[in-house]
Write a structure and sequence with these properties.
The protein has six helices and no strands. By secondary structure, it is mainly alpha-helical. It has a single domain, classed as Orthogonal Bundle (434 Repressor (Amino-terminal Domain)). Helix 1 crosses helix 3 and helix 2 crosses helix 3. The mean pLDDT is 94.
Amino acid sequence: MPVQHDYSNFSTPAPHPGEHLREDFLPGYKLTPGALARAMGLKDRTRIERLVRETQSVTADTALRLGRVFNTSPEFWINLQNAHDLSKAAIDNREELAAIRPLDMA
C-alpha cells in the first residue's frame, strides 16, 4: 500500500511551489520571472509571474519545463503542488473530514 501522509494536523498549508521558486530557485540562478520564462521556452512571463505570486498552480506542462530547466524531476514540482493542495484542503475541511469513518472491506 502506498505511503499516506496525514494532513489533518497541519495548521498552515505546505508551501506553494511558487514560494520555492521565488525564494530558492530564482535567486539561486539569478533569474527574473521573464528570464525563467524564456529559458523554459514560454512566449511570455505571465505563467511564471502568477506562479511566484502563488496565484497559479503548477501544471503538468509547467512541471516538465521546470524539471528540464532546473535539472530536477517534473514529479518534484507536481509533488510540491499536490502537498500544498492537499494540506490546504485538509485545513479547510478539517471538521467534515474528521467525521468520515473508513469503510471495512466485506
